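dumping this here before i forget
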Amino acid sequence: MKILAAGDGFVTTKVLQGAIAGADGLGEAEVQVEAIQSNWPNDPYSDFSGVKEAFGDEDELIAALVGADIAFSHTYPFSERVIASSPDLKLITITRGGPVNVDVEAATRHGVVVSNAPGRNAVASAEHSVAMIMAAARQIAQRDSEVKAGDWRSDYYNYDQVGPEIAGSTVGVCGYGNVGGKVARVLAAMGAHVIVFDPWVDPSALEPGMELASDLDSMLERSSILTLHQRLTKDTEHMIGAAQIAKLPDQAIVVNCARGGLLDYEAVADALDSGRLFAAAFDALDPEPLPAGHRLFSTPRVTMTPHLGGASKQAAELAGRIGAADIARFVAGERPEHLMNPEVYEADNLRVR
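structure:
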């Protein structure tokens, strides 16, 4: 069986190959591993050929997939054309929580199983979210740049200038999945009162002392800090806009390290310019990257990072291990754990058998 390890600068071919070698039963199996590697993230990914957030040359990928039964990748584009041009392909394993760089419908039509790696960067993303909350509250990035510029200002000790402590604050956590749940637990451990809004969460999953909001508005009305962790869908797009921001307590903080489309950034900028909000922090923007001259660059008390919340060595290595474990199951004739199109695996007439 031939496996193509199609890496990039984050989940490298070395990481993918190491995960294959270390997977139970896979290191000893009769598999041939070949590798290619793209220049992402040094060159940005894009949406093309019906897939999203992808990087890599389709022709290079098609050529590398000749004779390959399994593709193990992070960001390469598995478009309709690539899948249709790879008749030996049986499994595509993507080391991302959402395999948006795979045309899953095309894979299903062609009898190719698709698996992913949910939760692979949950710890890194949660840690980054907590760091951004604290950076916004204490204005760390802004003070750092001022001190480096020789501007030492003690007037920031004035009561009206200082931010809140996490301990004792009411924090609204919107979305209690792999990332949101970890953020909620860390903030609760720091002494925050955590209110969770998530229509899909089982109340028994919340930690003692946390509160489950019956609706979004009731959470917003009490949240001096709001942190977003929802998936972006048609229902959640711009779920936080001017009307929702108006429900927050005065001088609240808004943090989005999930997806840019969840938040109306014009509404946030308006609230920051007017002083209605104290601060904001974003690791997810819309669009990405922001164009030159974008309003957020000159909006006060905004902290931004370039969508790198999930970037840690451990996240890349865990992604490889999750994916390799599913490949090992597949090679052993067992059902992979993280299937995006289980109907393909379960269909006797498709080519996974």
